[in-house]
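Running this now, will post back.
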Amino acid sequence: MNKDVYIYTDGGCHGNPGPGAWAALLRWQDQEKELSGFEQETTNNRMELTAAIQALQHLKRPMTVHLYSDSQYVVKGMTTYIIEWRQNDWHAAIKKKIKNLDLWQKLDELSTHHNVTWHWVRGHNGHPENEYVDGLVQKEIIKHTEG
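Update: finished.
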């Protein structure tokens, strides 16, 4: 049985900080699942991280994960920076605690349960799944801030 799951994530805010949302699209074999959520006061980076966290939390067993994000913050964080952060007790090179530490630690912990490959895609550049999850983010923000 194929254990590969493809995940597409996005997060965004109207204002930064401001009201924000996250979304994820999970594909496994011929199944799809959409996830999304809203926070009244947050940042774009927190929403990008939350999208990846929520998607990985949704998996019920260890999987091979191909996670696509338009956030270099998330992708570089999980592929490059996290190694140094762990070695430095979750401090950046300048000896300051990293921003969004709670989310980075949660994402790090969740990723250890899976074989995750992190992929960066250019946002707003016609990538169908990235455009789709961006649309889910915008709908979530509108739903909670208008009307």
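The beta strands are 4-13, 18-28, 31-42, 64-69, 115-120. More later if anyone needs it.
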